[in-house]
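Quick one: structure tokens for this chain, please?
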Amino acid sequence: MDARDSTNSSATIYDDEVFKMACDQFSVIADYLNIDEGDREWATYPKRAVAVTLPVHMDDGSTKAFQGYRVQHHIALGPTKGGTRFALSLSMGETAALAMWMSWKCALAQLPYGGAKGGVAVDPTKLSRNELEAVSRRYMQEMIPFVGPHTDIMGPDMGTNEQIMAWFMDTYSVYMGYAVNEIVTGKPVAIGGTEGRREATGRGVVYLIERAMSMLKLNPEKCTAIVQGFGNVGSVAALSLAYKSGVKVTGISDHTAAIYNPKGIDVKAAEQHVFKKGNLRAFAQDDHVDPKEFLTLPCDILIPAAVDRVITGKNAGQLKCRILAEAANGPTTPEADRILEKRWDEIFVIPDILCNAGGVIVSYFEWVQGLQAFLWTESEVTDKLFRILEHSFAQVIRRAKEHKISHRTAAMATGVERVIKAKQVRGLFP
């Protein structure tokens, strides 16, 4: 179904709760900015959405077909950019929502990108290395007509990593006949990756938390933090808070366990445990708590760094944090937002499109380095990252104060304005 017909039908290719949530968020911003009704569909629905079938020979001799997606939201500001997610629950609608959020995120950071997202509906932990490589290479092979260094640049996301990006790059390069390392970001340094890219999102989260603590006059050494999600972003954020900022990390969790200890958790020990065992299931078992209550435990800093829609209308009123740092994409529902807006003097929200922008910012640096065959050191990359985050943070806080609006509205409005203006200036191609 064509995207322009989708608003007139109850069922579309984007029919998904996550996409509906993203559209609801956009509607709030569109009303605030007085965006013309005729421009709203144009700004919401993706330019292109691709679904592919990936037949793969499995280790047991069977052939299994996996479903793959790629959504490119808009190209008004430049090529599209976005991660590639390997998750069993992935759908076209969720992919489109993530692409839309990426558009506002890139525009807020003033990156020359439109948003994109893609992935495969698969549980990567259930695949052997050979099977994972086969799925990865087949996915990129199917995407070759739709991606390119000046069209759509892939990166890692949930369920993917540097190795998968290397397979993507190699598959594309073999097809082209020469090395094209700028087709993906988040790849190993040995083949053109950037120092500090893996840690970029977590580092950015902590930088913004430190800025919020400074604004609120909170002493980091007297603060506690709870981190939901102990993957790449959550673990880097927890380690940085504990051993750089001096914050006591009292809670960590993943999909197997939620751990809480008001006296503090040995985050380095947890990291080593996950490295050896793969998850937190058997770590500090005496401190395991109910995952349903985890987000509402007392802390100064709450970091949802796992999946979307974990802060809802049911638990938003029960949060006991001073700073809510949204390291995940879409962790807070519109219903929860309405509650948090009433608690603006209690909870300082760092919205997701600002809070987790570190990854795409450093991916932009990696892309530029690839195009120009020019390298920066890790310290230079980190310094540039913090400068962009500081500029974005200052813009959001200033707009929120001047217009008496929430931080999320201020952040999204800034991003949406830039995209709408670019679309209007470029105009519709006849």
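The CA atoms of residues 222 and 350 lie 20 Å apart.
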